[in-house]
């Protein structure tokens, strides 16, 4: 029997970047917020020990325990999905701070083209550029509306960067100057300039200098130790929720954090969300937390799963293309090339998660797509994130990946290879979606989330185009050998790619094709907000975190208005159709 607790004003499900932003912004205004986090609490002090690649990068200390809850996967909807037993293609985080603890810190703004992709594509290339199987749609918001929220997130996170002519326009400079130039980033930039491209330093959540944000939180200067992705920062030099928004929320006295609180259901009376049900993972007790406003701020997968398991919203049906929950799941493609050097060595063991150089000439609609068989594009970068010894054994393709030759060649090329990689946009296809699995359940008896996903013709064409551009840059950098990256026949959930999953509870201007409006408020449950990359109508050519942060600040604004207007929030009224 669940114990019903005293009602609160706002409850958030998950306390990472989005949950922390919502809590901080509302608590500063005097709103009482309870944050439910199913993992344990973490602070900077928890990471002040020897760098342990095996513990964090191989054994996934900061990630979700798949023996308790996982997802099932299939390429096609006619296949039977099977459980993901080991983390691979993407890493589902767990614990206070979420993926904001173990991210690299690469922080971008999606382009104006991304937010109005359907309208802009049709205007320039016509209505049938991709074909009818793609669910391309506008996001229900313009870049000008979202721009102040991008900057607010950058101020909070202390982003280090520099402007460039092809990125989204800015009304203010970055809060911090860019990170250090290195021989690797300089070589990439010099090659790009020779090819008439426009290189710039990657925007970074690793601090180029000690920084105090507008809330008074101090983030230390980066030490370039090379242990960012999959690791927490022991210096407090990588911007994360545990050094920014969560301390801000706590200091107000209006925020209560409950860890080890696994939410299993959003309680819904057919009109309003009345609260959530959760299990205390330490005691096994079940609780009901009533609330005036419920905010889902967990990861992409869990936002969709909670709504589906709670019977909220219309599940997406790929056959009829009706319904909205689970719709437009997108990922990313990773075109690129590896450049091998015979006589030159680089200090690749040094670096930071966002130390890199980028060109945006082939991103969004920054180039003419009239004579290519795809839309959008991707950012192309070389990054110096720190090649740790266990997980970095790059050798040319004609070398076997085992045995004595592999060992000797991996030692030889450890300092003699550079990656030129692209993050390619992922566009929604009718057959790529999220749903509940009919067969498999978690440890509490609730259905697992099922992922149905495969690469599309758009993916393959864009991959080929961007890989060719990466090869050109690698050759211009003076490599003795440049090997292009291939795309597999089908998407596999086994090898790591990126943790840039998006969609499932998408935003838009039409309730028929979107689940939330541009404040991330559900169309049909007005006191329920769903915040995160689950709102993306497609995935762009960048890391999603900067856009997630902007949307979280926008949602916090919407929740404040909802409270001030006593339960009324004006909703956008735009039409959204397929390309």
Structure notes:
- The protein has 579 residues and is α/β, with parallel strands linked by helices.
- It has a single domain, classed as 3-Layer(bba) Sandwich (FAD/NAD(P)-binding domain).
- 23% of the residues lie in helices and 19% in strands.
- The chain contains 12 helices and 22 strands.
- It has helices at residues 17-28, 53-58, 99-102, 112-115, 117-125, 143-157, 183-194, 245-251, 300-310, 403-413, 457-476, 545-564; strands at 3-4, 8-13, 33-36, 71-74, 82-83, 199-201, 211-212, 218-219, 255-258, 261-268, 273-280, 286-296, 327-330, 336-340, 356-359, 378-383, 417-424, 433-441, 447-452, 481-484, 502-504, 528-530.
- Strands 1, 2, 3, 9, 10, 11, 12 and 22 form an 8-stranded mixed β-sheet that branches. It has a 6-stranded antiparallel β-sheet with strand order 6-15-16-17-14-20.
- Helix 1 (17-28) packs parallel to helix 8 (245-251).
- The chain starts with a strand and ends in a 15-residue tail after the last helix.
- 54% of the residues are buried.
- Mean pLDDT is 96; it is low at 572-579.
- Belongs to the GMC oxidoreductase family.
- This is GMC family oxidoreductase.
- Keywords: FAD, Flavoprotein, Oxidoreductase.
- Residues 212-330 form the Glucose-methanol-choline oxidoreductase N-terminal domain.
- InterPro entries: FAD/NAD-bd_sf, GMC_OxRdtase_N, GMC_OxRtase_C.
């Amino acid at each position: 029997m669940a114990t019903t607790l005293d009602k609160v004003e706002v409850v958030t499900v998950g306390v990472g970047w989005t949950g922390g932003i919502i809590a901080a912004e509302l608590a500063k205004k005097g709103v009482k917020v309870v944050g439910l986090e199913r993992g344990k609490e973490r602070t900077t002090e928890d990471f002040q020990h020897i760098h342990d690649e095996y513990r964090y990068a191989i054994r996934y200390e900061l990630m979700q325990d798949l023996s308790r809850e996982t997802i099932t996967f299939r390429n096609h909807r006619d296949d039977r999905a099977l459980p993901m037993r080991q983390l691979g293609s993407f890493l589902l985080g767990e614990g206070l701070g979420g993926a904001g603890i173990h991210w690299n810190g690469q922080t971008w703004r999606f382009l104006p083209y991304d937010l109005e992709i359907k309208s802009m594509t049709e205007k320039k290339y016509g209505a049938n550029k991709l074909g009818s199987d793609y669910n391309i749609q506008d996001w229900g918001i313009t870049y000008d509306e979202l721009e102040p929220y991008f900057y607010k997130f950058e101020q909070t996170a202390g982003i280090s960067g520099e402007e460039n002519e092809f990125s989204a326009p800015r009304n203010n400079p970055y809060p911090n100057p860019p990170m250090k130039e290195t021989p690797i980033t300089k070589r990439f930039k010099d090659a790009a300039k020779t090819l008439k491209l426009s290189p710039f330093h990657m925007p970074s959540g690793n601090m180029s200098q000690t920084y105090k944000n507008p809330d008074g939180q101090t983030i230390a200067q980066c030490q370039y130790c090379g242990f960012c992705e999959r690791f927490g920062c022991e210096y407090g030099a990588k911007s994360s929720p545990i050094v920014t928004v969560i301390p801000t929320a706590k200091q107000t006295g209006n925020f209560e954090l409950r860890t080890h609180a696994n939410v299993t259901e959003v309680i819904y009376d057919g009109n309003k969300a009345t609260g959530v049900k959760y299990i205390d993972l330490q005691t096994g007790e079940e609780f009901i937390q009533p609330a005036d406003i419920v905010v889902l701020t967990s990861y992409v997968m869990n936002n969709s799963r909670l709504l589906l398991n709670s019977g909220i919203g219309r599940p997406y049906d790929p056959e009829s293309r009706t319904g909205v929950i689970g719709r437009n799941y997108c990922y990313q493609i990773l075109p690129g090339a590896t450049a091998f050097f015979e006589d030159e060595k680089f200090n690749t063991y040094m670096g930071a998660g966002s130390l890199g150089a980028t060109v945006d000439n082939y991103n969004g609609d920054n180039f003419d797509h009239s004579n290519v068989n795809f839309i959008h594009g991707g950012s192309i970068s070389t990054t110096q994130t720190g090649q740790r010894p266990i997980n970095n054994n790059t050798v040319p393709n004609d070398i076997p990946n085992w045995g004595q030759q592999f060992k000797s060649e991996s030692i030889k090329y450890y300092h003699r290879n550079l990656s030129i990689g692209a993050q390619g946009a992922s566009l929604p296809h009718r057959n790529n979606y999220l749903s509940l699995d009919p067969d498999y359940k978690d440890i509490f008896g609730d259905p697992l989330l099922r992922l149905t996903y495969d690469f599309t013709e758009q993916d393959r064409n864009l991959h080929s185009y961007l890989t060719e551009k990466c090869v050109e840059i690698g050759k211009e950098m003076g490599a003795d050998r440049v090997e292009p990256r291939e795309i597999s026949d089908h998407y596999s959930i086994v090898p790591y790619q990126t943790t840039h999953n998006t969609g499932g509870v998408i935003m838009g201007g039409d309730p028929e094709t979107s689940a939330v409006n541009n404040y991330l408020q559900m169309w049909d449950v007005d006191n329920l907000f769903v915040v995160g990359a689950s709102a993306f109508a497609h995935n762009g050519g960048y890391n999603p975190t900067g856009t997630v942060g902007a949307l979280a600040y926008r949602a916090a604004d919407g929740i404040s208005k909802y409270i001030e207007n006593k339960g009324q929030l004006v909703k956008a009224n735009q039409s959204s159709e397929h390309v």
